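Batch job 17 of 40 flagged for manual review because the log was empty.
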Amino acid sequence: MEQVLHHMAKTVEKQLDDELERLMKQRAKLKQEWLANGHGEYTEIDGEKEFFTICNKSANVVCHFYKNDTPRCKIVDMHLRLLAKKHVETRFVKLDVERAPFLTGRLKIRMIPTIGLVKDNKTKDFVVGFTDLGNRDDFTTEILEWRIARSEVIEYSGDLLVPPAEAKKQRALQIQSKKTIKGRTDDSDSDLDFSD
């Protein structure tokens, strides 16, 4: 009986190893396709035609609609450049609204900067201005990453219901409460400290 169980365990283990190897090869192939399509970089595109071509080639697209003379667009550029390198599963581009009047009208883009989030060739969501990013110019890359992830156009391992700053506070409180519990002495009947 032990030999039969051992043989079954080995068979299942081999099947799992084969499946894992297949998935890793499939992911590596996908990554090569993404890189060949311009993923991993934050690039400027020429106009509407190129925008539609990119959306046809890539399942996930983040498009920053900007104007050159808008300082807040430079802030967005800085963050998206970092995110493009981190999230090769998504294509990150920027498009000057003056080069795309039809598209910006069709998408009802009225405020700059606006980040269009496209999934499977459909506009899924927009990040308009900095309202969703704490309404401040010094927002973190993490908050923008979290906001984009909420629209499912990037892979994200954090909690989509809790912004990153809040999640860090919660983790810090959990760690602090664990330290407090571990720091108590067993012979103490009280949490109060009567020493001077």
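Reviewer: the log was empty due to a logging misconfiguration, but the result itself is present. The two ends are 68 Å apart (CA to CA). Unflagging and moving on to job 18.
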